[in-house]
Amino acid sequence: MDYFLTEEQTEIKRLARRIAENHIIPQREELDRQQEFPHKIMKEIAEAGLPAIYIPEEYDGIGAGLLELCLATEELSRACGGVGVTYAASSLGCFPIIIAGTHEQKARFLPPIASGERYSAFCLTEAGAGSDAAALQTSAVKKGDEYVLNGTKQWITNGCEAHTYTVFAKTDKSRGARGISAFVVEKGTPGLSFGKKEDKLGIRCSSTYEVVFEDCVVPKANLLGREGAGFLIAMKTFDKSRPGIGAQSVGIAQGAFDTALDYAYTREQFGQSILSFQAVSFMLADMAIQIEAARALTYQVARMIDSGSRSYGKESAMCKVFPSDVAMRVATDCIQVMGGYGYMKDYPAEKYFRDAKITQIYEGTNQIQRQIIASALIREMASKRG
């Protein structure tokens, strides 16, 4: 479909695809097997200027929008979901600074991320606080002009590879979600350390670690917004970042589809290409329909957010749920089309399958997203009924 992309958007897509084809595809199997962080690929991404896409121009960014970020994320994920999320997770760590940071905080933290010199990470999830983010237990106790952080964050993407961490901690445990505040913590701060590296099913080249705070002293100047605004900042961040999960999902689905289509065209059984069999061709047709629908939804919601719309939580949840469900279905059908070959690690189909699953889980499970959508529908109906 023609999405009427601008010349700049088309160039971003082209740059990301070039990196995917020339650098990611040749290395993805080894990176996956070794769970190796893609340092060389991230350097190529930085040299192409892709980390600067979503960062305002006054902080050394390109000043483009969420759609441009989604275009790059989709193309990188089309080759490898692990690389795609490594790139996109840095934006997740940046969004709280962009949303709630002061000019001084943005000027301090954003330029090195825009250049690709530094990565960022988003620290919210804990062992007992996943979908119920308000249940987090990490504390931040104010002492003079500083805060002392204690607690452990779990499953943090970019883990020990990041340099800038946006961290959510309770400054007032008696107030529940309203007692959560957001901080920026820099790597090398005394009291910041890392626990175990997670051994994951998919996106294995992505660095996922526990991030530990033990009497970690953070200056008051690193508080984002006001005390107690952390939960709201986190929710605003997710509303803005979820189309990125949609883009990752579309990229993974497209990569799996390309693999299945190429295989079906060249594989012969009973003297003809298996693509000529209705059972196979209809599967591929359904895959193509679902991918295009997921892409259209993702791009449109990204455009909606870029337009300055004040309310997009429901739509943001939709473009996280639908594309990720599509990615899982398409990756599953890709293996089915390829039969025994799809199940073998000699082909990328099984990797797409493993990478797809996490898109239904992180940044809010699809069950939670459906709850968000349903709650929005109820509110809208109540408003109409007066």
Gist of the model:
By secondary structure, the protein is of the alpha+beta class. It has helices at about 5-35, 40-45, 65-80, 80-100, 105-115, 230-265, 280-305, 315-340, 340-345, 350-360, 365-385; strands at about 120-125, 140-145, 145-155, 165-170, 180-185, 190-195, 210-220, 225, 270, 270-275.
Characterise the protein shown here.
The structure is a single chain. The chain has 386 residues and is an alpha+beta fold. The chain has three domains: 7-114, Butyryl-Coa Dehydrogenase, subunit A, domain 1 (Orthogonal Bundle); 120-228, Butyryl-CoA Dehydrogenase, subunit A, domain 2, CATH 2.40.110; 231-385, Butyryl-CoA Dehydrogenase, subunit A, domain 3. Helix content is 54%, strand content 15%. The protein contains eleven helices and ten strands. Strand 2 and strand 3 form a beta hairpin. The mean pLDDT is 97.
Order of SSEs, N→C? HHHHHEEEEEEEEHEEHHHHH
What kind of sheet is the major sheet?
Answer: 4 strands, mixed
**Residue fraction in strands:** 15-25%
**What overall geometry do the principal axes of the alpha carbons give?**
globular
Task: Give the helix proportion (percent range).
Answer: 40-55%
CATH architecture field of the largest domain:
Up-down Bundle
What value does the average pLDDT take?
97
Question: Which structural class matches the secondary elements?
Answer: alpha+beta
| Low-confidence regions | none
**Assigned CATH class of the largest domain:** Mainly Alpha
C-alpha termini separation: 40 Å
Tally of distinct domains: 3
How would you name the CATH homologous superfamily of the largest domain? Butyryl-CoA Dehydrogenase, subunit A, domain 3
Question: CATH topology of the largest domain, anyone?
Answer: Butyryl-CoA Dehydrogenase, subunit A, domain 3
